[in-house]
Amino acid sequence: MPTKKGFQRTLIGSMDEIEIATPGGFYLGTAQGYNVDLSRLDRVAARITTGLFFHEFGKPLEPEFKVLAYSVDGFSNADQRTKTLIYDTLTRITSGKPRVFGDGVFTYWLDGARECDTTSLWVLQFYQKIYFLCSIASNHED
């Protein structure tokens, strides 16, 4: 848990009244909440994926490869075609073997990674509800 004063000030300073609604759209009122910096969380998910690569394969990721991570919540305003693509990709990857830690606190899946081919897609899931779609691919553009 972060203990730095700057983190506390930032968190408290970002709190505001937010509207609460059911998944069906019924208004429930307001509550204290804050906006999440998704780009910061994406960077954390990318670092986690880099560590998971080492965990899975026992070797560091080669320098010519990079990890990109995207919060699935970040696609909420995307067009329908993009949402469908993301949903289909998540469904395909999560149909594979899950790696579960902490009784569902953290779960991840990987798709396509082999020791000789580090290009892969990963899904990270936190608390059985927060998803990140991550990719490992070459830095080199062909």
Q: Could you give a quick summary of the protein structure above?
A:
The protein is built from three helices and seven strands, in the order H-E-E-H-E-H-E-E-E-E. The chain has 142 residues and is of the alpha+beta class. The mean pLDDT is 86.
Please provide a written account of the structure.
- With 142 residues, this protein is an alpha+beta fold.
- The chain has two domains: 5-34, no CATH class; 38-138, no CATH class.
- Helix content is 31%, strand content 33%.
- Strand 6 (120-126) and strand 7 (130-138) form a beta hairpin.
- The longest helix is centred in the middle third of the chain and has 20 residues, at 38-57.
Features:
142 residues, alpha+beta, 2 domains, 5-stranded antiparallel sheet
Set down the secondary structure blueprint:
Blueprint: H1 5-13, E1 15-21, E2 27-34, H2 38-57, E3 65-71, H3 80-94, E4 99-101, E5 106-111, E6 120-126, E7 130-138
Antiparallel strand pairs: 1-2, 3-7, 4-5, 5-6, 6-7
β-sheet strand percentage = 25-35%
Query: What does the overall shape look like?
Result: globular
Order of helices and strands: HEEHEHEEEE
- Give a count of the beta strands, DSSP E runs of length 2 or more: 7
Count, helices:
3
Global Rg? 18 Å
Number of domains as seen in the coordinates: 2
